[in-house]
């Protein structure tokens, strides 16, 4: 999110000011390109003329259960004025509308879902690379050993290696100890050559979102509660600023 979040203290309304606010917008109308009048920043400035405003600094990335590429999703993030946290809802009603922002009550609570192995992808990859070496029975055994290992693993103990198509999906690398335990489970089923092959396969495919990484789907909820004050922790704390474009009064009130 690039821009400056401005909150009107009097009305508890928020706007994200970007450099694009000043750019004219164009539309296609009856075969002609026309310049559209309308500037979010100017509208906000007029509506909150004479009110007290402040800058908010985002504390969390926008979170949504929709893919990054979905343009009409609703997302939530938290921001601070240095003293207090605000939960902000961000959305777009139609593809042509600018993003809208609203302060709502509550805070974001993220919970990590269960970790899962990419079982089918692992099987496909091994079949592709080592079809003549590993039988289907042994392949099933290997995948079950992985599933058993990740059954109770806490994603907080693993290293996140990639994010999925939504901010709620994460991929994690298997740690060395997990790899050792998986191979230990396979010891009676595979010979030394095969175990070496499996170890190499795990190491080779245990990065980014490759087949040996495990996936966890987080969930988020909005917890309604009284907002808690917080101690300043960002550079722009508690500073009341005037609304750009510059006015003769760069202090508390907008004009
Ligand atoms: Zn206002």
Count of discrete structural domains: 2
Low-pLDDT sequence parts = 231-252
Rounded mean pLDDT is 84
Give the spatial strand order of the biggest sheet. Answer: 2-1-5-6-7-8
Beta-strand proportion = 25-35%
Q: What profile does the largest beta sheet have?
A: 6 strands, antiparallel
Gross geometry? elongated
The rounded Rg comes to: 26 Å
Describe the model.
The protein contains five helices and 14 strands. Strands 2-1-5-6-7-8 form a six-stranded antiparallel beta sheet, with helices on one face. A four-stranded antiparallel beta sheet has the order 10-13-12-11, with no helix packed on it. The chain folds into two domains: 4-106, no CATH class; 115-217, no CATH class. The chain has 255 residues and is of the alpha+beta class. Helix content is 23%, strand content 27%. The model is unreliable at 231-252 (pLDDT under 50). The protein has helices at 40-47, 119-130, 136-150, 176-186, 192-204, and strands spanning 4-8, 13-17, 25-29, 32-36, 53-58, 75-80, 85-91, 100-104, 107-111, 115-116, 159-163, 169-173, 214-217, 219-223. A hairpin with a 4-residue loop joins strand 6 and strand 7. The structure holds zinc ion.
């Amino acid at each position: 999110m690039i821009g400056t979040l401005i909150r009107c203290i009097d009305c508890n309304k928020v706007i994200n000011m970007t450099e694009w606010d000043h750019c004219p917008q164009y539309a296609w109308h009856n075969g002609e390109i026309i310049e559209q009048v309308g500037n979010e920043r100017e509208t906000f400035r007029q509506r909150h003329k004479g009110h007290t405003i402040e800058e908010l600094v985002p504390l969390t990335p926008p979170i949504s259960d929709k893919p990054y590429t979905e343009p009409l999703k609703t997302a939530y993030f938290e921001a601070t004025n240095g003293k207090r946290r605000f939960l902000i809802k961000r959305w777009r009603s139609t593809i042509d509308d600018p993003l809208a922002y609203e302060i709502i009550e509550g805070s974001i609570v993220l919970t990590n879902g269960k970790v899962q192995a990419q079982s089918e992808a692992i099987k496909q990859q091994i079949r592709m690379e080592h079809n003549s070496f590993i039988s289907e029975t042994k392949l099933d055994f290997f995948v079950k050993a992985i599933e058993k290992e990740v059954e109770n693993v806490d994603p907080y103990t693993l290293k996140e290696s990639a994010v999925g198509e939504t901010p709620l999906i994460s991929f994690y690398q298997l740690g060395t100890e997990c790899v050792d335990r998986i191979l230990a489970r396979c010891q009676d089923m595979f010979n030394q050559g095969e175990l070496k092959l499996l170890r190499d396969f795990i190491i080779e495919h245990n990065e980014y979102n490759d087949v040996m990484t495990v996936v966890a789907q987080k969930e988020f909820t909005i917890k309604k509660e009284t907002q808690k004050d917080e101690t300043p922790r960002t550079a722009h704390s508690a500073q009341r600023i005037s609304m750009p474009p510059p006015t003769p009064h760069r202090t508390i009130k907008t004009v």
